[in-house]
Amino acid sequence: MKTLDFLHRWTGGLIGLVLALLGLSGAILVHKDAWVMLPHAGDALAAETETVAATVTRLMADPAARPQSINFASETFGLHRLSLGKDAGAYADQAGNVVATWQSQWERPEIWLFDFHHHLFAGDTGETVAGIAGIAGLFFVLSGIILWWRTRKTFEFRLWPRRMSRPAIVRQHRDLGIIVAPLLLLSLYTGLTMIFRPMTMLVLGPSAPSAIGAGLKPPPPLKAELADTIDWAAIVRQARQRFPDAQFRILSLPRGDSGLISLRMKQPAEWLPNGRTTLYFAADSGRLVAARDALALPATVRGFNMLFPLHAAKVGGLPWRLVMTVSGLALALLGSLAVWSFWFRRNRPMPARRPATAN
Known about the structure:
- By secondary structure, this protein is α+β, with helices and mostly antiparallel strands.
- It is 48% helix and 11% strand.
- It has an 8-stranded antiparallel β-sheet, with helices on one face.
- The chain crosses the membrane at residues 12-30, 129-149, 176-196, 322-344.
């Protein structure tokens, strides 16, 4: 038990601040659609086929200025987000009128905050570091439950330490941690599955990583160059005809030498905010090459598609957003106070008393 306590304290002191910042940024991002203040951001979703077809045609009309991708407006955010290459981008209303542009992610707080939460501003390396921090977070929660058990009779619920002394901080940390432990396990684990696919084996079974990879694999590449003129309206109409109840979510130009235009859609039964129902079109002609129905995927893949919506509170409405906000804020509080108490509030040894001298 002493070894476990030692590991819990030292790893918390070393990595607690990273977890605290991830928790705080996650709690803020859960409500992103509500705090991004731009013209038409609150517009109702215009999901009619011809409306979307006309907007896509307008946005993609100029081959020299067409976006790399369009993230379509949703029921909670009324603007399309356009990716213009590298860090540049724009927001456009649902008629195709640009309302905001940027050349760097630092011009848009929701974008750099997302990059920090997912990549720590360091790309794939930062994502790996965040994943390692998440694994450490799981260890903290599980070891904390074990360590709490021996002091369970002294449990007292406090959102904030009684005083900013190390014993008071440790007690508040221990007792608050046991309350939010289920939420932390959920948020940490679901986040880890997005970074380390093998983590899915813990819930979805040993064959999960290979099944997920096979289920989400795109069609083979085509030897097709992106044409200057494509009937974008026809692509939109074909997609709606194939999946009449689905929402348009992401239209992407070919990546690398794939030769495929992809269009992601979200069917009503899907939890994933951008859906996994995907259609692929030849980049030179716009002909439909393949279509993937997310609801027909194997159960393991459908289970995997439910993990991110739980993590990012994209399901369950406001009640679940508030639950995950509590999880993020609790992680921020526990992590920051753990670092504070470990590095700055360690108990100082009492000065030794001098032996009395005879008069």
